[in-house]
# Entry
Amino acid sequence: MVTWLFKPLYVYLASVVGVTDSTPDSSYVAAVYEHKVILNPHPRVPVSRHDALQHMQKNLDIYEEQAARAAQQGAQILVFPEDGIHGFNFTRLSITSYLETIPDPQEESWNPCMKPERHNNTEVLQRLSCMARRNNLYLVANMPDLQPCPLKTSPTSTCPPDGRWQFNTNVAFRSDGLLVARYHKHNLYFEASCDTPPEPEIITFDTPFAGKFGLFICFDILFHDPTVLLVQRGVRQLIFPTAWMNQLPLLDSIQFQQAFSLGANVTLLAVNIRNDRLIMTGSVFISQTNPHSVSHHLLSPVHKTDIKKLHICSGGNEQNTTLLYSST
# Structure
């Protein structure tokens, strides 16, 4: 039997860098949850929408518990990992019942918790929205998105043969439940169930406590687009859900994330899936002023939400940030 433990890690920046915050608004409290996802044991077999929802609700039940705990400890923003709600290893067909059509927040203002009737088959979006609203925190999660053809953001793009687009997607909700951001992963890693967006998306959202956050996912971090584009546009707080298999010598998750954060001079909220069999672990809060703020990287049977008080990272632009990345 696995014992579920909650062991919060709450560290003030002042104790790390030896300074005192000059203003009450110079820091914020962030939380990440490294989730041991409950997987579909037969991900390549199509299931009904009812069965897909039953599966996803098991993971969302855990999200609910962790969101409440994070809120109780003052978290202002909470980040969940890539594939944390639905899992992985699906085919293009078998993931169909897990898909929800996520509206573009740049085109439509929608609070799924307050107006659930506006869009059908959006149970996961509704639950995430209500989770953010109930706990009064910003919330970022990852889920699969279905967009019909033609794609509104790129109407001239060639439609996939089955007549729809399927994307690996980050969603962000404001503390009142409003959907504020939707990002489609651009650089896929052996993801047969998903499409590559026609163009890289540069997606950010604003918060009252830390300014602008940018979104990207897992394999994106190895490529110029959208990663370097976000940095060049002055985005200094980045959110990075991932399902990262640690591979030595150069693709250890924390090693790579630390190098990126320090090299780009950004604060990185990185959260990994927890799967010991696949060597998936390692989540960090990392910034130029707090280079050792690593949550954990141990193969131990512990579930926890890590919470830290972080300094707001500001300044820097494309003139003083040099990054060498693969060209897409």
Q: What stands out?
A: The chain has a mean pLDDT of 85. Residues 9-311 form a domain with the Nitrilase/N-carbamoyl-D-aminoacid amidohydrolase fold (CATH 3.60.110.10). The chain has one domain: 9-311.
